[in-house]
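Subject: complex prediction, re-run

Hi both,

The earlier run crashed halfway through, so I resubmitted it with identical inputs.
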Amino acid sequence: MKNITITIDVEEDCPPMLTSTRGMEEGLPKLLDLLKKEGIKATFFVTGVMAEQYPDLIRRIPKEGHELGCHGYNHARFDRMKKEEARVALNHAGSVLRKFEKQVVSFRAPNLQFPKSYLELLEEEGFLYDSSIAAYKPPFFRSGGKSKIIRVPATITSSFLRLPPDFFIPLIRRIKAPVIFVHPWEFVDMSELPIRLDCKFNTGENALSNLETLIRTLKTENYLFFTLKERANIEKK
Ligand SMILES: [Zn+2]
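This time it finished cleanly. Structure:
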């Protein structure tokens, strides 16, 4: 059985380079509409700050059948926090997000940077799955040591999906159970902004149409689209 997981990191536009939120206002509604139209469920890793600022949008996530996950409180990097600060940030973010969905069990750290020695904090704060690593590795493995957290690496970086679909779709097919990730701001035209090239190239309608092409192509190939939580449950059996 072929399966894929689409994850979305919900945050300010291209942090920390920008602090605008056009991705929230313009990109996220379009993305939610696309997933709804295609009948696809995804996992949204949302920062506490975005949930506080855009409650109506965040409400749509669980309401439309998606998984609501946690992306920290304010997109500060966990590898630059002391352990106690990390605990406070996780607790703060968790308590904001759990007002929208009781069961928030999946986590992804900003910049995919989360110290292994902090995994026990995730467990203490009620999380089960961590997708804070990027790697071409087996999709599921125990984190090792005492922690029960299951680590689920993101297999493809987001800018990759803004290359031509004829190029990236064959590569995705070769990955077993890929976990892809995108950001709402990628669906807004960022090309004129003074930010890194990999953040801005092919953003806007092209990025959305690429994602649509990917979803439609894989649907014709009988791929199943799972949220992170769903996949972890299947893998455990
Ligand atoms: Zn992020």
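The chain is about 40% helix and 15% strand.

- K.
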